[in-house]
Write a structure and sequence with these properties.
The chain has 22 helices and no strands. By secondary structure, it is an all-alpha fold.
């Protein structure tokens, strides 16, 4: 097992170097990496094959077809026009209004992916009206979809604290428990600051033009032909139905991927999109990149590499009792891990280790658990933890290098704020 861990970590590092050099197509690197993981025994072939039908990958592909169909309607231009008029023709103000709208929607859906697919077609149209490249706008949108407005205790966020209380009870610290507002309390200040960063500063690090082709984008200068009246209505009714379906998927008892696939099929069946347009809308490179990323994450879990990294927390902390140092470790380890593993899997690995570490240190576990949870949501340096980032990459025309260039500064800002804020709000020793 130790040999496999070393091999898996070596392949992981080499794949990162390949992405960074950007000499090969991202999809090629992803598929080569997955093949090598299978050949070396780090990834089960059946597990690798299952990633091509992973719900996140299916949602990604289907939602681009749905969003492209919505983009063919005149309604998306009308909504963009309304936002533009409200912003008095200023792109910066229009972007600000869109990011504030994300905050408004967040209490009703905690899913960054759902928010991203609802807003990016409208933001793309706003960019076109203002002669601004979508590459300037999609990272700010993705950043706020991930971190803005999260934790407001409505819907799923109103019961999330119960899951963490279950961890505390299971791992021997039932004397501590969260209340409904603790998640919001841990997130609110960093979320506000990151939103301000997205509004005023994120565009400065964004590329002036797409680094890779934007999925499904019409040729520049080509006028969009109006759809027939029936197809026009179908286009926005289908998009609205899919968006509402994603928000209430849990209550409806329907998997999100079923909703998105049905929406994609209806876009074609009703004639909103032609066969050629459906092919054009599919972001094949980003789809394969996500499949490869999911495979890499599974390999880290299957070989035990994730546990090795997680257990390093206790060793690094040692006997140090400085609350800021201890909490910095509790944040940084899952933050780094979740850039390369599914955020849910990272939480499940790290939270029990953190509780046991707190038990050993004799400190309160509430702050460290919040830091782990918040760190796992802050995966915007790579496309591996959440499907909202591949969507953002495809809509903005980003490769991994340009993604990292835009993400390193807000990552530092968010991390420092989280560590300081949570340490003050949830003292380790009292």
């Amino acid at each position: 097992m130790e040999t496999q861990v070393i091999i898996c970590l070596a392949i992981f590092v080499l794949s990162l170097i390949s992405y960074g050099l950007n000499k090969w197509n991202m999809a090629v690197t992803a598929m080569v990496t997955m093949t090598v993981l299978i050949v070396t025994g780090c990834l089960n072939p059946a597990t690798a094959l299952s990633k091509f039908s992973d719900s996140n990958a299916i949602i990604l592909a289907a939602m681009f077809i749905v969003a492209h169909g919505f983009g063919r309607t005149q309604l998306v231009d009308k909504v963009a026009g309304w936002v533009n008029r409200a912003a008095k023709g200023s792109f910066d103000r229009a972007l600000t209004l869109m990011l504030l709208a994300v905050w408004v929607l967040t209490p009703f859906t905690g899913s960054p992916m759902t928010k991203m697919v609802i807003f990016y077609p409208i933001l793309t149209a706003i960019c076109e009206k203002n002669n601004v490249s979508p590459s300037k706008a999609m990272f700010p949108l993705g950043l706020v979809c991930l971190l803005g407005g999260t934790g407001i205790p409505i819907g799923n966020a109103a019961v999330t604290h119960l899951r963490f209380n279950g961890f505390l009870e299971s791992y021997g610290m039932p004397e501590y428990s969260f209340v409904m507002t603790d998640i919001l309390k841990s997130k609110i200040l960093p979320a506000i600051v990151i939103t301000i960063y997205a509004v005023f500063f994120a565009k400065k690090l964004a590329p002036d033009a797409p680094v890779v082709p934007i999925a499904g984008m019409e040729q520049k200068g080509k006028k969009k032909e109006p759809l027939p009246p029936v197809q026009e209505v179908c286009g926005y009714v289908i998009f609205l139905a899919v968006s509402i379906g994603l928000i209430f998927a849990d209550k409806l008892g329907i998997p999100q991927w079923v909703i998105t696939v049905l929406g994609a099929v209806m876009m074609y069946a009703t004639g909103v999109l032609k066969g050629r347009e459906v092919k054009q809308a599919l972001p094949l490179d980003i789809y394969l990149l996500l499949v490869g990323a999911l495979g890499m994450g599974s390999a880290l879990v299957e070989t035990g590499a994730g546990d090795v990294i997680g257990n390093a927390i206790v060793t690094i902390i040692g006997g140090n009792t400085n609350p800021f140092f201890v909490n910095a470790i509790f944040f940084l380890v899952p933050f780094i891990m979740t850039q390369f593993m599914n955020n849910g899997a990272t939480q499940n690995i790290i939270v029990p280790i953190v509780i046991l570490a707190c038990k050993s240190l004799g400190c309160r576990p509430l702050g460290p658990i919040m830091l782990v949870a918040n760190a796992c949501m802050a995966a915007f340096l790579t496309p591996m933890a959440t499907s909202s980032i591949p969507i953002m990459m495809a809509a903005g025309g980003y490769d991994i290098k340009s993604l990292f260039k835009q993400g390193w500064l807000p990552a530092i800002i968010y991390g420092v704020l989280q560590i300081i804020w949570v340490t003050l709000m949830f003292p380790l020793w009292s």
